[in-house]
Design goal:
heterodimer, A: 337 residues, alpha/beta, 8-stranded mixed beta sheet, globular, B: 329 residues, transport (chain B), ATP hydrolysis activity (chain B), ABC_Ni/Peptide_Import (chain B)
């Protein structure tokens, strides 16, 4: 079997918010609390969930923007979470990022040419400045911007064009994996479609793997291969796209899908309205973290935490309903649409 | 007579680079108890339209012209004092950001009670009692306790419920909701939309819903008005608009949104994109505002601006070719 490009094993990231130096009982935000997944070469894995579920923290841990509390991040067989500075340099070339806000993620004082040339020089991908220019021009072509625009500053571009620059900058390092952290969420509908199409084209052309972090389920369904659903720092379900959207096995995924408003007036469908809010990650509920809002919760959910278990079709879910006989499990029926 | 009639509304802003025609000659009406959605992308003028109806646009740099007739009175001609008696009483508004539109140093109860004391002359005790009643109405658990709490003690969804409670406290005839669920998570959005639908039946207020989310439009609106570059380009009842969009921009918008369930029906793997960008509003636009991005635009479109025409019963669109397009399809 071929090795996955990225493996994340039991990743944990806890932030201390009180106590410590002068005593007092320390308390922690359990932002990510034991998450494992793999991303294959050329694959898109989407990480979905509501705000505060820890999906961006996972993305940032994969990028090694901070040290993780425990667990492993493995790129192509090499552990990155405890890597030395030298190995990190090559790692940073192979894993790049596109952030949500193209207004704050570009240096306003740098011309587009310099923005794109920086990673090329930094990783020694070109020998002469003529070669740098050639690469910069190619990148502009790739993301569909006019070559003359390299002389301009970021503020002279619209939001969609800026996001194209961010994508070009990520591509400049010739990465194998790009982490897209809500990369299309801030864009308008018509521009969003342009960027989604661009990402899909680039993936096909360059064989990129994408870790696509988003809360927009319709976009995710449109462009992903597999989906991982997070709730309060844990994965609750991981499955190939069709499996997940046709027959979600976790009650949270079902509620999430049914909550998305459909652009079809008068559409009749199952509608699950969850009660209450997401609990605090400082004091996550005991047992299954979702039991406080779950319409199917029973005694066992309040005491024992469910593990991710596999079902046919590479469909993983963490729910005690999985242990019930099939006839009694309300999660095995396909979604009524 | 309709509850609200907006006629040839123009909102222009003086800027260093020229006059920005944020809203340029928009007319529409809202019947009593009706929900009208105003849809469009950022910068199309939908929020400015709603703010100018309540005269919340500072003048200068803004300049509002046209007519906004509410129950027969032109709001643009009222004195500031008369206007204050209408805001929050006959017409109230919900904003997008529940974090920033509540006062952080006043209790929730005080803020709900404020409109009641001001407009209905209730005393402090009666206002608080009514505040508890309003919190119950919008589905906040333990309202007697919550009424004494401050905004930071509430979650985003709860704050938006408080905003709705404030807006509905005086039984307004018209509620303007500017992106009321955009800042919320989907499961919380579902709760708030559910609440708005439920309250509409109970309170009977007309709603003007401003949003960019076509899914939200499909769920709550009865009639839809599509705006582009400061103008109205199409208006129709919600089902008609989604099943039979006439304007190329509306068609493009609907095509650019992926639908949940698309992977199951094995539909095409490419989203329809609208090429290019929204034109600058500081320069006069010759011809149709959408011509620069439209796939079927001709010289006619680039020369003459199309008028809003009735294309089907209750369905208007501003496009030279819309009718032909619909017959062919």
């Amino acid at each position: 079997m071929t090795r996955p490009l990225l493996e994340v094993n039991d990743l944990k990231k806890h932030y201390r918010i009180a106590g410590g130096l002068f005593g007092g009982k320390p308390s922690y935000v359990y932002a990510v609390d034991g998450v494992s997944f793999e991303v294959a070469r050329g694959e898109t894995l989407s990480l979905v969930g509501e705000s505060g579920c820890g999906k961006s923290t996972v993305g940032r841990a994969v990028l090694r923007l901070f040290d993780i509390t425990s667990g492993q991040v493995v790129l192509d067989g090499q552990r990155m979470d405890d890597a030395s500075k030298d190995t990190l340099q090559t790692f940073r070339r192979r894993v790049q990022v596109v952030f949500q806000d193209p207004f704050s993620s570009l240096n306003p004082r740098m011309k587009v040419r310099d923005i794109l040339a920086e990673p090329i020089r930094n990783f020694g991908l070109a020998r002469s400045s003529a070669e740098v220019d050639e690469r910069v021009n190619k990148l502009m072509d790739l993301v569909g911007l006019p070559r003359e625009a390299v002389k301009r500053l970021p503020h002279q571009f619209s939001g969609g064009q800026r996001q194209r620059i961010c994508i070009a900058r990520a591509l400049a390092a010739e990465p194998e994996l790009i982490v897209c952290d809500e990369a299309v969420s801030a864009l308008d509908v018509s521009v969003k479609a342009q960027i989604v199409n661009l990402l899909q084209d680039l993936q096909r052309e360059l064989g990129l793997a994408l870790l696509f972090i988003s809360h927009d389920l319709a976009i995710v369904e449109h462009m992903t291969h597999r989906v991982a659903v997070m709730y309060l720092g844990k994965l609750v379900e991981v499955a190939p796209k069709r499996e997940l959207f046709a027959a979600p096995r976790h009650p949270y995924t079902r509620a999430l899908l049914s909550a998305v408003p459909l652009p079809e007036p008068g559409a009749q469908r199952e509608r699950i309205i969850l009660k209450g809010d997401v609990p605090s990650p400082v004091n996550p509920p005991k047992g299954c973290r979702f039991h406080t809002r779950c319409p199917h919760a029973f005694e066992r959910c309040r005491v024992e935490e469910p593990e991710l278990k596999i079902a046919p079709g590479d469909h993983w879910s963490a729910c005690h309903l999985n242990d019930l006989p099939l006839a009694e499990n309300p999660m095995v029926t396909p979604l009524a649409s | 007579m309709a509850l609200l009639e907006v006629e040839n509304l123009q909102v222009h802003f003086r800027t260093p680079v020229g006059v920005n025609r944020a809203v340029d000659g928009v007319s529409f009406h809202v019947e009593e108890g009706e929900t009208l959605a105003i849809v469009g992308e950022s910068g199309c003028g939908k929020s400015v339209t709603s703010m100018s109806m309540l005269r919340l646009i500072p003048e200068p740099p803004g300049k509002i012209a046209g007519q906004v007739r509410f129950a027969g009175r032109d709001l643009l001609k009222l004195s500031d004092k008369e206007m204050r008696a209408i805001r929050g009483n006959d017409i109230s508004m919900i904003f997008q950001e529940p974090m920033t539109s509540l006062n952080p140093v006043l209790t929730v109860g005080r803020q709900i009670g404020e409109t009641l004391r001001l407009h209905q002359g209730l005393d402090a005790a009666a206002a608080e009692a009514k505040a508890v009643e309003m919190l119950t109405l919008v589905g906040i658990p333990a309202p007697e306790r919550r009424v004494k709490e401050y905004p930071h003690q509430l979650s985003g969804g709860m704050r938006q419920r408080v905003m709705i409670a404030i807006a509905l406290a005086c039984n307004p005839k018209l509620l303007i909701a500017d992106e009321p669920t955009t800042a919320l998570d989907v499961t919380i959005q579902a709760q708030i939309l559910d609440l708005m639908r439920d309250l509409k039946h109970r309170v009977g207020a007309a709603i003007v819903l401003i949003t960019h989310d076509l899914g939200v439009v499909a769920e709550v609106a009865e009639r839809v008005m599509v705006m582009y570059a400061g103008r109205k380009v199409e208006e129709a009842p919600v089902r008609e608009l989604f099943s039979n969009p006439r304007h190329p921009y509306t068609q493009g918008l609907l095509g650019a949104v992926p639908k949940l369930g698309s992977s199951l029906s094995g539909e095409s793997t490419r989203l329809a994109e609208i090429p290019g960008q929204v034109p600058s509003l500081t320069k006069p636009i010759q011809g149709c505002v959408f011509a620069g991005r439209c796939a079927i635009a001709t010289d006619v479109c680039r020369t003459w601006a199309p008028a809003l025409e009735m294309k089907a019963p209750r369905h208007v669109a501003a496009c030279h070719y819309a009718l032909k397009e619909a017959v062919a399809a």
